[in-house]
Fold:
Amino acid sequence: MMDQKQFDKIRAVFERSGVALTLVDMSLPEQPLVLANPAFLGLTGYTEGQVLGLNCRFLQCDDDNTATRAEIRAALAAGREAQVILRNHRADGSPFDNLLFLHPVGGRPGAPEYFLGSQFELGHCKAGVGAVIGHTDQLSRELSRIGAVSEHMEMGSRRQLAEMAAALVRAWESRR
Ligand code: FNR
Structure:
């Protein structure tokens, strides 16, 4: 079990980060949000009090994300990282396409105690491949700060995350 000190460290990293970050408790049946940082609240337009305790699917409203949701459930059940694109809605109802990064945190391999989610809004001006690589670089740094990956994350796996995200963005752009 993660101790309070480690949890507080994650909270401190979240507070300072420029990328949207959320933490979900995987030990609870509804997989609720236990942390949502200022960048996430800025992106979605919700307050912390409105989102903590909810499963993050509330952002989908009644969008049909059937295949993507199945992909997410499989990754969560296996305790492995994933990157997917989901249609979401802000508090004011406006839609956006969310490139979501999921990473296991704490617990045992295959059975993480938490999952970290990072949200990147596709489609707003300057949010092309360059911006998503900036996002994955910062996300990789935050993951190593909280110890979710070995202290000095292999350059290889950092690059792999950037390449995966860039490929998803290109595929998304070509569908528009
Ligand atoms: C999520 N989920 C999620 N979904 C979404 O639409 N927008 C989001 O930003 C997030 N963020 C997020 C972060 C973390 C850490 C986790 C673990 C999950 C996915 C959502 O909560 C849920 O897992 C998926 O919708 C699949 O499950 P259902 O809805 O098919 O039961």
About this structure: DSSP finds six helices and five strands in the chain. The longest strand covers residues 95-105.
